[in-house]
Design goal:
With about 325 residues, the protein is an alpha+beta fold. It has two domains: about 70 residues, no CATH class; about 220 residues, Alpha-Beta Plaits. The chain is about 35% helix and about 30% strand. It is built from nine helices and twelve strands. Strands 4, 5, 6, 7 and 8 form a five-stranded antiparallel β-sheet that branches. A four-stranded antiparallel β-sheet has the order 10-11-9-12. The protein has a three-stranded antiparallel β-sheet with strand order 1-2-3, with helices on one face. A hairpin with a 3-residue loop joins strand 1 and strand 2. About 30% of the residues are buried. It comes from Mikania micrantha (bitter vine). It holds the Pfam family Dabb. This is Stress-response A/B barrel domain-containing protein.
Length: about 325
C-alpha cells in the first residue's frame, strides 16, 4: 500500500492543531475538576476519586455519577493564576456582568515587532515575508496568539508592517528569540525585504478563559489591531504613569461594543528603550476604531492624563480579517 507524503508546512500546522487541542482539553478538565469539587463541598455529598475523575454519591437514593478522564490535573499552559480585580477586557456579555465583583486573570507576555520595509517591496515578497512570520506559531510551543499586517496609518518613524504575538511566559519568549526556525525566517524572508525592525515586550493579564487567552472565536477574526507605544517622562515613571494607564483601562471597559480586548504594560526589552510602555487594543472594526479615537472621552483622558507626562508616542494600526488569519 502506498503512503501519502504531506507537505512539511501541512504537517507543522497539523502538529500545532493537535497541541492546541491537547491544551484546550487540559484547560477544560481543570475547570471541570474545580467545579465538581466546589459542588461536592456545597452539597455536603460524599465524594471519592475514581481513576482520573470524581465519583459523586447521592445521599438520598444512592445513585452516583462518575466522570473519568486521563492526563494531568495541572492548570493548562503553566500560567500563573491570580484572583483579583483587573482591567482585562473581553466582550462576552457573561464576562461583562457587572454583578461579578472579581475576575480571574492569567499572566501573559505580549511581543510586538515593527518592521520598516524597503521601498521596492513587491506584493509577492510581502506575502512571502508575512506568511513565514505567521507560520512561526506552528514551529514552536509557547505562542498563544499572533496577528500581523501592513500598517494602515502614516507614522513618524516610518514603520510599514507590524507583528503581535502572545506568549505564555518570559521563558517562552526567550526561547522564541533563539529559535532556529525564527532566526532562519529573519535571515531569508525578513532581512532581505526590510532595512530595520524593532522589538517591544511587556507583561500583562487577560481573562482566564480559553477564547481571550488564545484570542480565538468569531470576535477575534475581524477588526483592527491598534498598538500604542508611549515614552513617559522619567519624572513620571511609577505611580503617575501607572495611574494614567489605569485611567485608560477603565475607559476602555466602557466601550464593549467597540473593543474586544486590550492589554497594557511596561516594556522590558533591553534593546528598545525608546518607549517605556505599550498598549495593544483589538477593535471590532475600522468604524469602531474611528469612533473611539475620535470620542471626546478618549481625547479628554489623553489631554488630562497622558499629554503632561509623555515625551513621545507612536501609534500603529493594521487590519485583521479571516484571510489574514489563514496566510498559509
Amino acid at each position: 500500500m502506498s503512503s501519502v507524503q504531506l507537505p512539511s508546512m501541512a504537517l507543522n500546522k497539523l502538529e500545532y492543531l493537535v497541541d492546541t487541542s491537547w491544551r484546550i482539553q487540559h484547560w477544560f478538565w481543570g475547570k471541570l475538576d474545580a467545579k465538581m469539587s466546589s459542588d461536592c463541598q456545597m452539597n455536603n455529598s460524599r465524594k471519592g476519586r475514581v481513576g482520573y475523575g470524581y465519583l459523586r454519591h447521592d445521599e438520598n437514593n444512592g445513585s452516583g455519577v462518575v466522570f473519568r478522564r486521563t492526563g494531568s490535573r495541572r492548570f493548562p499552559l503553566g500560567l500563573k493564576q491570580t484572583n483579583r480585580r483587573g482591567s482585562a477586557i473581553n466582550s462576552s456579555s457573561e464576562r461583562q456582568n457587572p454583578s461579578t465583583n472579581a475576575e480571574t486573570l492569567r499572566n501573559v507576555v505580549e511581543h510586538i515587532c515593527l518592521l520598516k520595509a524597503k521601498m521596492d517591496l513587491s506584493d509577492e515578497d510581502e506575502k512571502d515575508m508575512l506568511d513565514f512570520l505567521y507560520t512561526c506559531q506552528y514551529q514552536m510551543r509557547g505562542i498563544l496568539a499572533i496577528s500581523l499586517g501592513r500598517v494602515l496609518n502614516q507614522n513618524v518613524e516610518g514603520y510599514t508592517h507590524a507583528v503581535f504575538m502572545r506568549f505564555q511566559k518570559k521563558e517562552d519568549l526567550s526561547k522564541f528569540y533563539e529559535n532556529s526556525f525564527y532566526l532562519g525566517v529573519l535571515k531569508d524572508h525578513v532581512t532581505p525585504y526590510c532595512h530595520e525592525f524593532s522589538y517591544f515586550d511587556y507583561e500583562s493579564e487577560v481573562e482566564d478563559d480559553i477564547l481571550p487567552i488564545f484570542r480565538k472565536g468569531e470576535e477575534f477574526n475581524f477588526g483592527v489591531e491598534y498598538i500604542l507605544l508611549i515614552a513617559f517622562k522619567e519624572s513620571s515613571l511609577g505611580e503617575v504613569a501607572d495611574g494614567a494607564l489605569i485611567s485608560l483601562a477603565k475607559l476602555l471597559v466602557q466601550f464593549p461594543s467597540l473593543i474586544v480586548q486590550a492589554t497594557k504594560g511596561s516594556n522590558f526589552n533591553s534593546g528598545s528603550k525608546d518607549y517605556t510602555h505599550a498598549v495593544v487594543i483589538r477593535f471590532r472594526s475600522s468604524d469602531a476604531f474611528d469612533i473611539f479615537m475620535g470620542s471626546s472621552e478618549y481625547k479628554d483622558i489623553w489631554r488630562s492624563k497622558f499629554h503632561p507626562i509623555t515625551e513621545k508616542k507612536l501609534s500603529i494600526s493594521f487590519s485583521v480579517d479571516p484571510v489574514g488569519n489563514e496566510l498559509m
